[in-house]
Write a structure and sequence with these properties.
Layout lengths: L4 E3 L2 E14 L38 H13 L7 E2 L1 E5 L9 E5 L8 E6 L5 E13 L3 E3 L8 E3 L6 E7 L6 H18 L11 E11 L8 E6 L2 H20 L7 E6 L4 E7 L9 E2 L6 E2 L2 H9 L5 H12 L3 H8 L2 H11 L4 H18 L11 H12 L5 H14 L3 H8 L7 H14 L1 H8 L5 H12 L6 H13 L1
Parallel strand pairs: 12-13
Antiparallel strand pairs: 1-2, 2-10, 2-11, 3-16, 4-5, 4-15, 6-7, 7-10, 8-9, 11-12, 13-14
Helix pairs in contact: 2-3, 5-6, 7-8, 7-9, 9-10, 12-14, 12-15, 14-15
The protein binds adenosine-5'-diphosphate and magnesium ion.
The site of magnesium ion has 3 residues, from loops.
């Protein structure tokens, strides 16, 4: 669906490109042996390299290179055999080196693409411009003391992959789907934990607007947005702001802006620097990084099945809808749970129960799938009981609710509560006869042409059976009886 913003001068198109910083999931930093873990006491994980001590020499962490290559392969991207680390010079109190070691002209990963899944079931391909490796900066703490700021260098030197998209997105929904898919890919690959609230995945959001069919407009960059919802809110606000500026005769200046999560607005932080302001130059302490094709091939062999491949397989093998398949593959745990539960069962039915009942109940209880009281094999067993007509779908909901509380097997609950479906025609015939005898006037109306009353009879019989009569048999027997 085309996302259109209406202005006074006509319809506007929103153009979005994202730069995502993803912390590489490693024990140690990009160029030092200090721990890269989150949440340690301030300044407890700082080597002399991370503190910018003179004379220290950086040494590349091979694990970071491996994971950057693996991520590049997951983005269907070109892996560059030679890449170059450069110094990006700027001053920040939390950047003791006075520069950040990053990659500029020669990144380790070049062009790629990923698929995003939209709510209406359509799939769109988004281009990846590049992925490069760089160091993170430390963190200034302004809220510890009324007059002073402190600095925590634990984060200084942490390994980041900066993943830059092409300006291919056209709505907040697409941007949200892109971040969600990217997060799923790095989590499947185990190259980043994707925890946005801990800052291990952060987003710079580039937004511009234009009239449909016109050239690209000037963009503003909104820095460090840390949730999918905030990415979408920031775009929504920023696009409208730009339209207002242009329509009232103003011009958009390229600048860096901040998103205010409380107000839902963006505000100017600084005018945008150009690359030449940073005086990039190759870091003389580091040789160009070469990765041989053998090395890349070995990494390719370790690739797990990724969300898109899984999605296509689910659609093909189980005949499920694109939407259902996308929801199932969104999280690795969820896809694994599904496959386990669906083994030997009606997969579509399992998908239904998983996405509606189970995820709904977990959501309500603020639980993750890992914490689910209902295990995959148990959900599978419940679906099995429906498929072989032991219980009806209605009773299954009751059983499920009980499973979610007690964690008991569905078979045990059905046995204990006597919930087995009645398929014995004799027993159902008896109830049918009773219902017909108790409602002579309704029977007369029905026979007089009021077909709708059939539902009433079915409902009455099911109710009388405690919900246990097999609905198909009830239908057949009622029809016969009412035609007598
Ligand atoms: P910088 O570091 O200067 O921000 P990058 O090349 O790292 O430059 O990132 C630029 C980002 O801005 C990319 O994600 C790109 O897709 C996006 N972008 C470029 N031009 C536009 C535009 N006109 N409107 C929206 N986004 C854009
Ligand atoms: Mg940028």
């Amino acid at each position: 669906m085309t996302y259109i913003l209406k202005g006074e001068t006509g319809d506007w198109e929103t153009v979005i490109g994202l730069e995502v910083h993803a912390q590489v999931l490693t024990k140690s930093k990009l160029f030092s042996g200090a721990s890269a873990d989150f949440g340690a006491a301030p300044n407890s994980q700082v080597s002399p390299i991370d503190a910018g001590m003179p004379g220290m020499l950086p040494v590349i962490n091979k694990e970071c290179v491996t994971k950057a290559v693996l991520t590049g392969l997951g983005l269907n991207a070109v892996i560059n055999n030679v890449s170059v680390f450069e110094r990006k010079n700027y001053f920040y109190p939390d950047l003791p080196q006075g520069y950040q070691i990053s990659q500029y002209q020669h990144p380790i990963v070049g062009n790629g693409e990923i698929e995003i899944d939209l709510a209406d079931g359509t799939v769109k391909v988004i281009g990846i411009e590049r992925l490069h490796l760089e160091q993170d900066a430390g963190k200034s703490l302004h809220d510890q003391h009324p007059q002073k700021s402190y600095v925590d260098l634990n984060r200084s030197g942490n390994p980041l992959m900066e993943i830059v998209s092409k300006p291919d997105m056209r709505s907040p929904e697409e941007a949200g789907a892109y971040v969600t898919k990217l997060r799923a890919i790095v989590r499947y690959l185990g190259t980043c934990d994707g925890n946005m609230d801990e800052g291990s995945m952060r987003c710079d959001v580039n937004v511009s607007v234009r009239k449909f069919g016109a050239e690209l407009g000037t963009r503003c960059e909104i820095k460090n947005v840390n949730s999918v919802r905030f990415v979408q809110q920031a775009i929504e606000y920023e696009a409208r702001r730009q339209i207002e500026v242009i329509e009232s005769g103003g011009k958009i200046v390229q600048e860096t802006r901040l998103f205010d999560t409380k107000q839902g607005t963006t505000r100017s932080m600084r005018s945008k620097e150009d690359a030449h302001d940073y005086r990039y130059f190759p870091d003389p302490d580091l040789l160009p990084l070469t990765v041989a094709n053998d090395f890349i091939d070995d990494i390719r062999k370790t690739m797990p099945e990724l969300p898109d491949a899984k999605k296509h397989r689910f659609i093909k093998d189980f005949g499920m809808s694109v939407q259902d398949a996308s929801v199932l593959v969104q999280e690795k745990d969820r896809a694994e749970y599904f496959e386990k539960a669906a083994e030997g069962r009606d997969a579509k039915l399992v998908a239904n129960w998983l996405t509606t009942e189970l995820l709904g109940a977990l959501n309500k209880g603020e639980k993750t799938l890992r914490e689910s009281p209902v295990k995959a094999s148990q959900l599978g067993a419940l679906v099995g009981l429906i498929s072989d007509n032991t219980i009806s779908g209605r009773i299954a909901k009751e059983v499920f609710a009980e499973m979610f509380v007690s964690g008991k097997d569905p078979g045990v609950i059905v046995e204990e509560k006597g919930l087995k479906q009645v398929t014995d025609t004799g027993a159902i015939e008896k109830i049918v006869a009773e219902v017909v005898a108790e409602n002579p006037d309704k029977v007369a109306e029905y026979k007089g042409g009021k077909d709708k009353l059939f539902g009433f009879f079915v409902g009455s019989v099911l109710k009388k059976s405690g919900g246990k009569a097999n609905p198909g048999i009830v239908n057949d027997l009622l029809k016969k009886k009412l035609e007598e």
